[in-house]
Design brief:
Shape: globular
Oligomer: single chain
Number of helices: 16
Helix content: 40-55%
Order of helices and strands: EHHEHHHEEHEHEEHHHHHHHHH
Structural class: alpha+beta
Radius of gyration: 21 Å
Amino acid sequence: MEKGSISIYFVQSALKPILERGMDVGDLLRDAGIWPGLLESSQGRVTAENFSILWLGVARMLDDELFGQDSRRMKVGSFAMLCQTLIQCETLQNALRRMARFFNLLLDDFCCSSESDARHGYLTIRQKTTPHCSCVFGYETLLMMQHGVACWLVGRRIPILEAAFAYPEPSWSAEYRQMYSEQLRFNQRATTLTFDRSYLDLPVIQNTLSVREFVRGAPANIVLKYKNSAGLSAQIRRRLRAAARTAWPDFDAIAASLHMTASTLRRRLDDEGQSIQVIRDQLRRDMAIEYLCNTANSLADIATDLGFAEASAFHRAFKKWTGANPGEYRQRIRAL
C-alpha cells in the first residue's frame, strides 16, 4: 500500500460523537499516536495507520462502527459479519445487492442500494428520514466501507467514473478527488458512486481464509489501498516517489517520461485541478510525516531527502502543511 496521509477533518469527525457525549479523547489519541495539537489545525494530517487505530478505538468506545452517524448503532462486529456473508456470493453484483440489504437491516437513517443500467453500475446512498445529526461523515464512512469491500471482493480497484453527493461541496472536497474520482458533483438527490458495469460480472474471489486477514487489517486496508490511483496526478506522484529524493525530475522531464508535450501535460493536470507543484508538495508532506513518525533521521537529513535546499525552508513548508513545525511534531508524537 502506498504511504499517504489523511486530513485532520476525518479525525475531528470521528471524535465528534465522543466529545458530544462528554467523554475523554486523550487515551484514544494517545493510542493512535495522534498529537492533540493537530486537532486545532485545519491543515493537519495523520497517517493512514494512525487513523485506522483511532477508527477502531472510537468504534469500541461507542460500540458503533458508524460513529454515531445513524440513530441506530452499527455494533462492533457488524463489518466482520458483513464480509463473512459476502464471500458466499458468486459475483460482485450479487454481493453488492446483499451488502445493500445488510446495511438497510442495520440502519434507520440511510438507505443503500446497488443499481445498474446498460453501461454503468451504481452504489447509492439515500436518506430514509430526517437525520438526527449532520450526516456528511456518515455518507463518507459508508462510501469508504462499501467501495473498499467491493474492491477487495474482486481483488482489484474499481475505478469510479463519477461521484455525486447529496450535500453541498465541503471545504475538504480535494480529498474526494484522491478517494473517489476527479469527476465530482454536489447538491444531488442522492450520494452515488458510478463505475463501469462490466465490474458487476466479476467473480468474488475471497474465501474464509482471506476474509480473516482482510478484517484484521481493516480499516487501514480500505482507507488508502483503493484510493483513486488511475489519474494522471497519481501516476506522477508514483514517479516522483520512485525517483532519487534530491534529483526529482522537472516539469519537462516528467512530460517526456509520460510521452506528452509540456503543454499537453499542463492541460491534463488543469483538467484534474492539479499542478506539478501541488503534487510535489503533497508528496513531500506525506513523506515528511512518514519520516518523522517512523525514522530517527535528523531534520536536516529529512529536508535534504525531500529536496529542500535549506532546513529552514523545510520547517516553513511543514508548518504550512500541518500547523506544527517538524521538531515539535516529532516530539509530541514520541511523547504519546
